[in-house]
User: Fold this.
Amino acid sequence: MTRAGQTIEDMGMTDYSDHYFGTCRDRSTNTLYVMRVPGSGLDAAVARTAADWPTVKVQFADAAGSRGQLMALLNRIRADTEEWRAKGVTIEGLTLAIDGAGIVVDTPQWQSAEAEIKARYGPLVAEVR
Assistant:
């Protein structure tokens, strides 16, 4: 979905990078979901752009952080994997939750390490599993 050659994704990443997480579209209902951190002009900008597509419904969903914020945390955790390994915790995977809820940390030691991981990295860690 574009306006003047710029997609909503481009607009979000360029003009609202501190708030934008991502989009997804449900073709069965013709709904565009925009995941973002509330509190910027992004909602209004998307609404103005979407006005050009009267058959498209737009829904906004709160995200824990912007894509940039979450990627920075993911990379920080990745950089700390050797430190975790020295503590007996193997980080097997790091992903962004597709709904913008935060970072998902995969470790076989999730039961014993969850509290420490969340305490260290804060609320942007959505799940330790």
